[in-house]
# Entry
Amino acid sequence: MYKYDHYDQALVDARVAEFRDQINRRIAGEITEDQFKPLRLMNGLYLQLHAYMLRVAIPYGTLDSRQMRMLAHIARKYDRDYGHFTTRQNIQYNWIKLEECADILEELATVEMHAIQTSGNCIRNISSDQYAGAAADEVTDPRPWAELLRQWSTFHPEFSYLPRKFKIAVIASPEDRAAMRLHDIGLELIRQDGVLGARVFVGGGMGRTPMIAPEINPFVKADDLLSYLEACLRVYNRYGRRDNIYKARIKILIHEIGADEYRRQVAEEFAHVKTLGIDPPLAELERITAFFAAPAYDAVDVETDRSDPDFAVWLDQNVKPHKQAGYAIVNISLKPIGGIPGDATSAQIDVMADLAERYSFDELRVTHAQNIVLPYVAKRDLYAVWQGLRDAELADANLDLISDIIACPGLDYCSLANARSIPVAQKIATRFADMDRQRDLGELKLKISGCINACGHHHAGHIGILGVDKKGVENYQLTFGGSGAEDVSIGKIIGPGFDEDGVVDAVEKATEVYKALRQGDERFIDTYRRVGLEPFKEAIYG
Amino acid sequence: MKLLTGNDLGSGAVTWWTGNGWSIHVEDAADVGEHGEAILHAEEGARRVNAPYIIDARTTADGPRPAHIKDRIRALGPTVRTDLTLKPADPAAGDWII
# Structure
C-alpha cells in the first residue's frame, strides 16, 4: 500500500488546520452559510436530512487495518456507531456535528486519511478494481496508476472549479468490476506489443442522462497518460457548460460536439501539453509502484475442507480465484437479509480490520457494490476467516445474487432524494431470503436509487429501481437490462411505476419469467437480452 | 398551517421554530402564518439555525404533521433505524411518517 511522504502528510495536515479555521469562522458568524457551503463541500461535509454528513475518501478503495480501525473509532466516538460504505468506494458518516468535524479530520490525518475532494466540482476519489493486485486476469496492478492519478488530481489548481464533478476509474482486467465505462473518464490498462498503455474512454456516467463512455483513444502509452488526461480535462474545462447544472457533465459536452470532434480537440491540446513535462519521471513512478509490491506469499496450495455446509456455500459464492496459488480473494457481504446495504457497525468494522491484519497481509478493499474484500487470504485460513465473519454477522453468502443490492441512502437520509431506497432493498432481500432460491436465480444485479442522480446505480442494474415523487407519494420505476460490467448497457424503463409493495411483487414476477424462459446457464440479463421486454411486461402488467 | 424548520448550526440536528425559540421536537412547532420569511431571515442572521425553510403542515391531535414525507422523516429520523428516531420506543412512529 502507498504510504504518505512528508509532502502528502503536510498537505493533509495543512488542510485540516485551514478547515478548522473556516469552521470556527462560520460558528462565530464571520462567514455566512452561502460562503461556507463551498468550503465545507471541498472537505466532504454535506448537510443532509438529519445532520451533517461527512464523506471520507478511501483512495481506489484500498486501506489497511489501522485505517479501518480508525473508521470504526470515528463511528464510535463521533457518530452513532456505524458507517455507510458507498458506491464510490468511500465511507459516509450520517450524524456528524460541525463543531467536531475538524477533530475528526485531525484524527483521520494521523492514519493518512482525509475527506478532500469527496464533493465539489473537482476530480473525485479515483475508483478501481477491488481485486487489483490479486486478480488472475489483470495485465498489471492498476493501483500505482490510480495513486499517480490521485496525486495529480489532488488540489490540481486548474481543475478545482470544473463545470461539474468528475469521476475517474482505472482497471487493468478485461472483466470490468468497477463500472469503468460509466465514469467521466474510464481507463483500461492494456499491453500492446509489450508496451503498457491505456484504452481511454471519456464521457460516461449515470445521473439523469445516463451514457456509456465512447472510446476516445484505443491506446495511450503509459508514459503519456497524465498529459493525455490533462488534455481531456482541459478541453472539458474550457468548453463544458457552466450555465446549466444539468448539462454540465463532460458526457453532455461530448454528446453535443461528438466523440470525433472531442477526440480531435484533445489530440490538439495533448500536442501542447506534452511539451510541459507533466508526466512523472520514471524514478517517481517506480517509487510509487514499489509500495504495491506483491505481499510475501508463503502458503502452499491446499484442498479446502468443505465438510461444513454453510461454509461450503459461502466458499462457492463469496470466494474468488487468486492469481497466486494457495490464495483466494474473500468478499465480505454488507448485505444481510433485511439489513441496510453498505452499513457496518463499528464492531463489525473492527472485526474486518482484525481479520485483514491477521489473514490478508493487512489490507482491505471497499467495492463499488458496497461490500468489503480481503484480497490476500491463504486457502488454509479460509475457514478461520469465515468463522470470524460468521460470528460478526458478516458471512452472508450472497455476492452478486439478488439480495446483494446496491442502494443509495435515499429519503431516509439524503436531502436530494425523492423516495426511500433502503426499505425497498430490505423487502426484496427478505422476499428472496431463501438461499437456494437466490442461488437458483444466479447472478442478478439489482440496484436502487432514491432519485434521478442515480447514486444507487439503477441504470446499471440487471434490474434497476428508481424512486420518484409522484404528487408527494413515493413511486418506483423499474428498469431492465442495465450492466456496469464489460457488457455495459443502460437499463430501459419497462412501464408505469409501482408503490413499495408493488415493485417488490413486480421484481418477483420478473424472476419467474426468467426462470421459465432461461436456456442453459443464461443469467437474468442474458435471457432479457435474448427475449426482450415483452414477456416480462406481460407478466408484470398483464 | 406553516412551519419553520432548519438544522442547528453546530450539531446539524433538525429544529423547529416554536414561537420564541427552536426545538428538536416537531410537536413543539408553532404555526408561523405569514411571518415565516421574516423569522427565517432574523434567525438565520443570528446563526441560530442553518438552511431554514418554510413547510406546509396540518394540525392533528398529536401536534403538527408536516405535509411532505421528507419533512416527516426529518422530524422523527430514518424509517430504517427506528432505534435512532426521536421516539425509539414508540411502535407507531413509523406509521406517523408514512
In short: The first helix of chain A runs from residue 6 to 27. DSSP finds 17 helices and 20 strands in chain A. The longest strand of chain A covers residues 185-192. The interface with chain B takes residues 26-27, 29, 33, 47, 49-52, 80, 95-99, 340, 411-413, 417, 420, 422-423, 426, 472-474 of chain A (CB under 8 Å).
